[in-house]
Design goal:
Blueprint: H1 6-16, H2 21-28, H3 32-39, H4 48-57, H5 62-79, H6 98-108, E1 111-112, H7 122-132, E2 139-144, H8 154-161, H9 173-179, E3 184-189, H10 195-208, E4 212-215
Parallel strand pairs: 1-4, 2-3, 3-4
Helix pairs in contact: 2-3, 2-4, 4-5, 6-7
The protein binds adenosine-5'-triphosphate and magnesium ion.
Magnesium ion binds near residues 123, 189 and 190.
């Protein structure tokens, strides 16, 4: 796997903060056993509250926090047996007028790009739109590119999310195969730092699968 595993990240950040497992456990209100199990990868899919408690206890800056949560979210998703799921939203959605416009655009186009300043609600609205059109698709996946360090990992991130093993040539054959003959919606989040490679991969996939639609 391309991205750093949650347990390794946790150990790294804890040590960087000069904190022992015991110290962190006490500050975060968790057991030493729980911290150890997370670091060793025995517990792989930490709950969001646990991740928040650890981030608070280590005084993580916002960017680190997001990377940490992204790794945890990735771990949680990997544990899910069913392959076509959208992340749960913990808060209720505040209706936005753009949602109908996005639904209409999605019905007419196979590629939809959502842009806007940080925190404006791009991810949330993309998930909400996907949820509302769920009945129109056989499968939908959210692929988060946030944890990626380099654009060359875009394909492997998509493949991992779709539970596909990459082999040979440009690495897209297996992904295209997985998408074949199914109406699939891919929501690809946080493309900006790997935008060139993400655009290239998405364009190739759209070319190979006529039943694929992408929101990014
Ligand atoms: N319509 C909405 N109703 C309720 N909560 C919302 C809505 N839009 C955004 N939020 C909440 O606001 C926060 C920021 O939204 P979101 O993560 O979607 O922004 P973003 O534009 O994707 O940010 P970034 O640029 O950092 O990726 C989230 O906690 C999200 O759940
Ligand atoms: Mg976002």
């Amino acid at each position: 796997m391309a991205e750093t595993r949650f347990g390794e990240l946790l150990r790294q950040y804890r040590r960087a903060a000069g904190c022992s497992q015991e110290g962190l456990a006490e500050r975060a209100g968790l057991s030493v056993g729980a911290i150890a199990a997370l670091e060793q990868g025995i517990r792989r899919a930490p709950h969001r509250d646990t991740v928040d408690a650890i981030s608070d206890a280590l005084g993580m800056p916002e960017l680190t926090r997001r990377e940490f949560e992204a790794a945890a979210a990735q771990a949680r998703r990997r544990q899910r047996p069913d392959d076509s799921v959208l992340p749960e939203s913990l808060t209720s959605f505040i209706e936005r007028s753009e949602i109908h416009e996005l639904q209409n655009l999605l019905a007419a186009h196979r590629l939809l790009t959502i842009t806007g300043t940080g925190g404006v609600g791009k991810t949330r609205i993309a998930i909400e739109v996907a949820r509302r059109v769920e009945h129109l698709y056989d499968a939908m996946w959210l692929v988060d590119l946030l944890p990626l360090r380099g654009g060359d990992l875009v394909r492997s991130q998509i493949a991992a999310r779709l539970n596909v093993q990459l082999r040979g040539d440009d690495g897209l054959t297996e992904i295209a195969h997985r998408l074949r003959s199914r109406r699939v919606l891919l929501v690809i989040d946080n493309c900006e730092h790997v935008v060139v490679e993400a655009a290239s991969v998405i364009e190739k996939l759209l070319g190979r699968s006529t039943t694929l639609t992408v929101t990014r």
